[in-house]
Design goal:
single chain, 468 residues, alpha/beta, Aspartate Aminotransferase, domain 1, Aspartate Aminotransferase, domain 2, 7-stranded mixed sheet, 5-stranded mixed sheet, 21 helices
Length: 468
């Protein structure tokens, strides 16, 4: 059949609109949207003709209304969807970092589903400030005079140095002039504020004298950065925050501590190395401490700034604040998160990130064994085992630190691990695993117990239908 004859076989749009199934789709989704999907499918078929893929073309022509429906359902599907994180990386940056719990969702839903007193003082009947909803509880927990939050920690630095050091120099150790992910670097973030970073010392050794020698009439602030996403070991030296705080007092300069990931409890009791807490940095004399809300803190994305009341007030009134302030949903979720920290035991139970870190090994093993048992009928098509594993915190936090865990591993007999991993990513709830030693690993630390039944059903269906 010639190309010209194949093009003639393509159905006309007006003819298709008379099809009963297409008419029903138009009633449900709107005529204009359905027509657009029809045209996209026709264009795809023209491509099949151009590539001489006659077999696939014939298959498409047999059930064109069905293809249109499939196209419509794909178009209306929400692009941001729930996935099952089976990587063992708790704060997986590509998977949205900290998952939020019921407390966050309830608070955000209440803020979204009705009017609220976001910027209204119920006592006076006058306009209020949105940060009053969270400032007191944050200040109480970390032990500061004031607190304010913006949309991420990079925004925190931009606000701080715009308000306190615009047109001036910010002194920092060369070993702390870091890249914070996504190719965003501390020098570039600071320069966006109108300040200029002045690096002192060397990559591996910076003394307090290096900071002092750099201070001049154009110095605006002293910056200390916690290198939370890497470590420098060996022949090293760094000036302590206490030393820098004393230097700041001597020269009347604000001392800023960029903590990165905001930890509020001691994680050593859960088998991790010590990670500096916000409270520790406050006690060491920093005028301002800034940190993320959606990392080890376990809350929504936010950049939180705590410290001296008079400095916080400067930030509140700086014009940039309006552009980077939190919306009502983030405020509600952030406030709910900090309220959980009023009782550490409650925080570990209700904040998913902390709960995953604290999950006991025997619980993870039992979950792995339950998954393994659920897949027993697939054993003839793959080697499925329960194995010891190692989880990571991730999200640029606690580099090199591992948490012992358990995983279910799958080694296929007739297909590659890459093919299985790809199939899992196309489940109705996509499953993200990792490949190691020619096996697909499903680490239980980050698999929510409530997702186990669906995970078993999806994998069993994959094997039962010989789809792999």
């Amino acid at each position: 059949m010639s190309t010209k004859e194949l093009f003639r076989k393509l159905p006309k749009v007006d003819v298709l609109l008379g099809d009963e199934k297409i008419r029903k789709l138009c009633e449900e989704y709107g005529r204009g949207f359905v027509v657009d999907c029809i045209r996209q499918e026709l264009e795809r078929m023209r491509g099949l003709i151009a590539s001489e893929d006659v077999v696939q073309l014939e298959e498409c022509l047999k059930n064109f209304p069905g293809l249109v429906e499939k196209k419509i359902l794909k178009e209306i599907e929400y692009p941001l969807k729930k996935v099952c994180n089976a990587t063992g990386i708790i704060l997986h940056t590509n998977l949205g970092r900290a998952p939020l719990g019921k407390i966050h969702l309830d608070a955000a839903a209440q803020a979204m589903c009705s009017y609220s007193n976001l910027e209204y003082d119920l006592e006076t009947g006058k306009r209020g400030k949105r940060w009053t909803h969270y400032a007191d509880v944050i200040s109480k927990i970390v032990g500061t005079e004031g607190a304010i939050a913006v949309n991420n920690n990079a925004a925190s630095l931009t606000l701080i140095f715009g308000a306190l050091a615009k047109g001036k120099e910010v002194v920092v150790s060369r070993g702390e002039s870091i890249e914070i992910g996504g190719k965003f670097r501390i020098p570039e973030v600071v320069e966006q504020s109108g300040a200029k970073l002045k690096e002192v010392g060397t990559t591996n050794r910076t003394r307090i004298s290096d900071y002092e020698n750099a201070i001049n009439e154009n110095t605006g602030a002293l910056l200390k950065v916690h290198t939370s996403n890497y470590r420098v070991v060996g022949f090293t030296e760094e000036a302590s925050l206490e030393e820098i705080a004393q230097l700041g007092k001597k020269y009347n300069l604000p001392v800023i501590m960029d903590l990165g990931s905001g930890v509020l409890i001691n994680l050593e009791k859960y088998g991790l190395a010590h990670e500096p807490t916000v409270q520790e940095q406050v006690k060491k004399g920093a005028n301002l401490v800034c940190f993320s809300g959606d990392k080890l803190l376990g809350g929504p994305q936010a950049g939180i700034i705590v410290g001296k009341k008079e400095i916080i007030q400067k930030l509140e009134h700086y014009p940039l604040m309006r552009a980077i302030r939190l919306d009502k949903c983030a405020i509600a979720a952030l406030t709910a998160t900090f309220r959980e920290y009023l009782d550490e035991e409650r925080a570990v139970k209700n904040i998913p990130v902390l709960h995953m870190i604290a999950r006991p090994l025997e619980e993870l093993k039992a979950q792995a064994e339950a998954l393994h048992a659920g897949l027993s009928e697939c054993a003839g098509m793959a080697e499925i085992l329960v194995e010891e594993s190692n989880s990571m915190v991730g999200g640029g936090s606690l580099p090199g630190e591992k948490l012992p865990s358990y995983a279910v591993t799958i080694r296929l007999k007739d297909s590659s691990c890459e093919e299985l991993a790809e199939k899992m990513r196309h489940f109705s709830t996509p499953v993200i695993a990792h490949i190691k030693n020619d096996k697909v690993w499903l680490d239980m630390r980050t698999v929510m117990p409530e997702d186990l039944v669906d995970l078993i059903d999806h994998i069993r269906e994959l094997f039962t239908n010989n789809s792999i």
